[in-house]
Every structure is written in C-alpha cells, then in structure tokens.
C-alpha cells in the first residue's frame, strides 16, 4: 500500500518540492498583506479627509447676530434700500474668510446671488483695525456687512413695507446660514433705520 523510499536522493527531492511550495505560499501571503495594508491606509486617509470636510461643512458657518435696514423713500412710500447684518462665527467654527462667502437673496422681487468680496469695502470687522482682511478668527470677532440692495453687485430692487426676504450666507467650506427678513408693515418718514 505505501511504498517506502529507500534512496536518499528521492527523499531530498520531496523535501525541496515542499519547501518551494511553502516559500511560494509565504510570498503570495506577503504580497496580499502588502496590498491589504496599502488599501487600508488609503481608506483611512480618505475617511479622515471626508470627516474633516463634513465637519467643516457643518461647523464652519457664520451666525447672524443682528439685522437692520436703512429706511428711505421707495416708489412714493417708505421702504428699505440697504440691509446691515452683524455676523460672528458660529460656535466651534474655524476661521471664516468673509471675502469667500456668498449670499443668496430670495424674495418678492426675485432671486439674486453674489459674493461678499463684490461689495467693495462694505464688509468690516469691528474688532480689528481697518484693513482689507475680513476674516473672523475669534469667537469675539464681529463683522458688519452692508448690502445695498439696488447696487450693481447685488441687483435686487429696494423692498417695501411688509415684504419678506430669505437671505442665505454660504461660507467657503459650504456651510450655510439662512435668516429671514421681515420689513414692518408700517414705516414712517421719521424713521431712518428699522430692525428687521
């Protein structure tokens, strides 16, 4: 049934064959492990980047502290021709460059979108000296954004008493903040500004 190997040469050849098969299996396992480790490292890097971008998209937004309007004559009655926003960075947000922030206004006069850097000097940081740097870096920073509705950069008509607007600020990371503007139904000629 079993044949005994009596020659030493034949016995060595069987051992070398087994050794070659064993080495081949080790090489295949090492290559497979290298591919798995490389893939795992790539997936970890991609997951970290996705997590950071997702966090930025949620956290790196601005917060509207207050909003007011400049009251003026609009088509024979009182209305608002400029909206002033005071904004700060939201809790947990990183530095926010307001020059890279876009604004979308939707209301009864239609829809417009523009970048804050198109407002040419109408964005100022209260807590810093006057310069071109309009980046919110600290939670105590406040910035004033003046939006002249009928300016060429904005292209939205003045709003009348009783009108409503939806204003959305989108930062460079994609985080959005939406605020509602409601102009009071009664505006008098004595008023120069109104809280919205």
Summarize the main sheet: 6 strands, antiparallel
The succession of helices and strands, N to C, reads HEEEEEEEEEEEE
Helix/strand-derived class? alpha+beta
Q: At the third CATH level, what is the topology name of the largest domain?
A: Immunoglobulin-like
Could you name the key traits of this structure?
196 residues; alpha+beta; Immunoglobulin-like; 4-stranded antiparallel beta sheet
Structural features, described:
- There is one protein chain.
- With 196 residues, the protein is of the alpha+beta class.
- It folds into two domains: 7-59; 61-195, Sandwich (Immunoglobulin-like).
- The protein has one helix spanning 8-59, and strands spanning 62-74, 77-89, 96-97, 102-107, 110-115, 123-125, 135-136, 143-148, 159-160, 164-170, 176-182, 193-195.
- The model has no long low-confidence stretch (mean pLDDT 84).
Describe the structure concisely for a colleague:
The protein is an alpha+beta fold and 196 residues long.
